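Batch 3, record 17
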Amino acid sequence: MTRPLSMWNDTPTKQAILDFVDKVTANDADSFVPPAERIATFDNDGTLWCEQPVVQGVFIAQRLAAMVKTDPTLRDTQPWKAISDGDSSWINSAVTKHYNGDNTDLKALFGAVLKAFGDITVEDFENQATSFYESSLHPVYKQPYQKLGYVPMVELLRYLESNEFTCYIVSGGGREFMRPVTESMYGIPPERVVGSSSVLTFKADDDSANIIHSAAAGIIDDGPGKPVQIWTRIGQRPILAVGNANGDIPMLQYAADQSGPALCMLLDHDDEVREVVYSSGAEEAVKEAGAQGWTIISMKTDWSRVFSFQ
Amino acid sequence: MTRPLSMWNDTPTKQAILDFVDKVTANDADSFVPPAERIATFDNDGTLWCEQPVVQGVFIAQRLAAMVKTDPTLRDTQPWKAISDGDSSWINSAVTKHYNGDNTDLKALFGAVLKAFGDITVEDFENQATSFYESSLHPVYKQPYQKLGYVPMVELLRYLESNEFTCYIVSGGGREFMRPVTESMYGIPPERVVGSSSVLTFKADDDSANIIHSAAAGIIDDGPGKPVQIWTRIGQRPILAVGNANGDIPMLQYAADQSGPALCMLLDHDDEVREVVYSSGAEEAVKEAGAQGWTIISMKTDWSRVFSFQ
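Prediction for the assembled complex:
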């Protein structure tokens, strides 16, 4: 038998995962969970892949820059202004403000994004995302973004599946933006990708029938939206959930409220050598983890590897 | 090898199904569909189980009758009035009017339904549905409603799965109303049940974390809502779709618009002996089926059995 979780160091965190899986799979009526109920949910940005910078933010910035080329008057308005000025911090700061409860900049960003991607088919949107993945490199690692997945997390997904868990991605990021790469990056098929999306509409004529990405915000799969989408999509509570930010608190609370065993984990970005040290947008989550006894995954201490290319 | 589809007579319809499955599974580059893309979607009411009367309508009527007992002033308003007067046709007629484009009565019904089931957890709602299934009998067949599934359709689900299809229910009916019985009736787990639902909200305190059924209409999984929900939930177009009413037209159009093979089918309720003959609410669908060359399943001609108890 191969040793499970080879990219995880022998720490209490790894032991907590192994113990939890043993508990729900062992022949013990008090803790056994039937395979059909072994649902595990994973945040994506900052949990399964690197979010410095937020990948979808880069994708959007590229698209907005292309819009300014076509219509230079856009240069006077945010977020096009920030993009044109090369002020890449604006989008990251909008996301951080959102984590801290201020949605002003995020709304301006959403409006622009919806304008950028409104009125195209979902397949066209996914093709744009695929082109981005094929052509763009991370500014620091100089790798395609689909190489930015954390390999110990991918190993954890496979370990859980080998113990008859079903794993889902439950991300505040765009569902249509993630789906083109989740199968190859994480082995997660499109039907197990839960995320945010714009309002979709159906359009048919005699020759064609399509789903159209329209210019209005639809599902916001963040904060309290995460457990709602989990129920909507899966119809069950997860028994294991992993996140890294304030927006993951409700998902972790939802998984924690079980009659049987639950494992709730929060990834701490504390590795200044292999990734980036930051805690902005995770302050409340860290507090709640302490209060509720959730397991903290320390990137620095718990993982023997971070990325496949390192 | 057992003969597939033993409850289907040897008609052109059965041959169309067998031919389609052969085509997508055979080693022929022009028609082969990889297993991961073999998505099949099935309407529920009138397609997988009997909709005379609409089962969820009976469930709702029972609940509304219980409300009048608690608050007799409700007796003056529809739909409570119809329920109190024993006028069971009112709900069926509201649904038929909806199929024909008039939503007046359905809106009154929705309002009452949301009031009846507002502000309870989704688990409590499912428990109420389970109690209904355990305690109620169909007025004609004198069988529990979960025995009202069409056995040839269940056989078709299994036949498709044995050919590596993944089958989903995509119904205008309530998702939370269906989920408690779809596994035992059809072998379809909760994550593959797509349906309508009220707005759900997340509510957490120090001790508990729950999804609450709130008193507002959320997803309407009917008509153009069906392909939108299919994409949202599955992220792929179905290559096979089955319905029986006007509300299924967009789902069938969506499945039909493929580069590869597609099989779109419409169930015709033409069996006066074993079920009921009716076409109300299916007129447009029949027309579209003719125009597009969709396959009509005749209950009378194509099925050797209808229900398990007959």
